[in-house]
């Protein structure tokens, strides 16, 4: 198996490279501003750079994880984000198809409005913010460019981070640690966090399945198996790490900033029917990735 991973310097991409290497696959990781540790610098908005890599490597799969994924940043940088999340995704898929590679585009639960969960892969998306719009348009661009492409929608992610604010989950540690400072944390939006190692495992299983059964294509999705608000995450994090959470109170109002779905739970049955599953319990996963930050 040979794969090219875009966004290989990012939170998910690093885990995908690690999981695929552990399987003994040939892995070519692409990055942009953090192109180091064996990653190749490719600006995915530059089609000729993408073509050069894919023509040279001719991978079985391109795991396309590179994106701008901060909703509040996207609200202010919409056109620039569309170049990356939509136009580059289409161009990567057209180039991949021309060299015989299949794309797996990483998408998000934010394509849904959160009013009627759980969402199946066939439910009609209705994003509430500009980030969700770019990711949905990216999905459609990829699927139109190559009907044999795949989309994997994932929930809020956490895992080993280079900075605590790299994940919307791990950034909560600073609030938990500041026991002398009372903090009010959102207890409104419901989320299903998953560890990046579980998503990477699912991606590897999906590549293997598709290689065995090339007729598999389309939209797949995975939600973590436990429901949390950000307040719940703080409590669970504190308990897992043996810290106090008595200074943290629950805020029952919707989060500020770009509008976000209330309950973005996605139905996992399409992957489960393929026998593709993986989950890390929040308590174990958060303890493992935050220990070094204590
Ligand atoms: N994180 C989450 O909670 C979450 C939730 C749902 C869905 N997702 C989706 O999961 C995927 C991975 O997210 P992530 O959290 O791993 O993202 P991330 O940590 O923010 O990483 C983004 C990646 O995109 C790369 N990139 C940005 N601009 C580029 C360009 N012009 N050319 C090439 N590469 C470029 C970055 O490279 P450099 O850093 O080297 O510049 C980085 O590797 C995304 O599609 C995201 O929408 C994430």
UniProtKB/TrEMBL annotation:
- One Gene Ontology term of the molecular function aspect: transferase activity
Q: Name one Pfam family in it.
A: RmlD_sub_bind
Q: Which GO terms describe its biological process?
A: S-adenosylmethionine biosynthetic process
Show the InterPro entries listed in the entry: dTDP_dehydrorham_reduct, NAD(P)-bd_dom_sf, RmlD-like-bd
Assembly behavior: Heterotrimer; composed of a catalytic MAT2A homodimer that binds one regulatory MAT2B chain. Heterohexamer; composed of a central, catalytic MAT2A homotetramer flanked on either side by a regulatory MAT2B chain. NADP binding increases the affinity for MAT2A.
Q: Which family does it belong to?
A: Belongs to the dTDP-4-dehydrorhamnose reductase family. MAT2B subfamily.
Its name, as the record gives it, is Methionine adenosyltransferase 2 subunit beta
């Amino acid at each position: 198996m040979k794969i090219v991973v875009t966004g290989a310097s990012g939170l998910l991409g690093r885990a995908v490279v690690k999981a695929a290497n552990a399987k003994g696959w040939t892995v070519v990781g692409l990055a942009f501003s953090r192109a180091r540790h064996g990653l190749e610098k490719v600006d995915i908005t530059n089609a000729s750079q993408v073509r050069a890599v894919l023509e040279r490597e001719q991978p079985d799969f391109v795991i396309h994880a590179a994106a701008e994924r901060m909703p509040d940043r996207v609200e202010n940088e919409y056109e620039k984000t569309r170049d990356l999340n939509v136009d580059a995704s289409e161009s990567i898929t057209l180039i991949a198809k021309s060299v015989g590679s299949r794309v797996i585009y990483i998408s998000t639960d934010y394509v849904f409005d959160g009013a009627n969960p759980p969402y199946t892969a066939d439910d009609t998306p209705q994003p509430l913010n500009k980030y969700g719009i770019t990711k949905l348009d990216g999905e459609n661009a990829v699927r139109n460019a190559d009907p044999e492409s795949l989309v994997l929608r994932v929930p809020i992610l956490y895992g080993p981070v280079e900075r605590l604010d790299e994940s919307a989950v791990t950034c909560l540690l600073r609030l938990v640690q500041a026991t002398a400072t009372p903090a009010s944390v959102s207890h409104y939006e419901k989320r299903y966090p998953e560890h990046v190692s579980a998503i990477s495992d699912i991606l590897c299983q999906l590549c293997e399945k598709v290689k065995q059964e090339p007729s598999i294509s389309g939209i797949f999705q995975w939600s973590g198996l436990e429901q949390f608000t950000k307040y719940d995450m703080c409590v669970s994090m504190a308990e897992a790490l043996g810290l106090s959470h008595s200074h943290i109170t629950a805020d029952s109002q919707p989060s500020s900033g770009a509008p976000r779905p209330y309950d973005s739970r996605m139905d996992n049955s399409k992957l489960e029917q393929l026998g593709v599953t993986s989950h890390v319990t929040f308590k174990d996963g958060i303890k493992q990735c935050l220990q070094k930050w204590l």
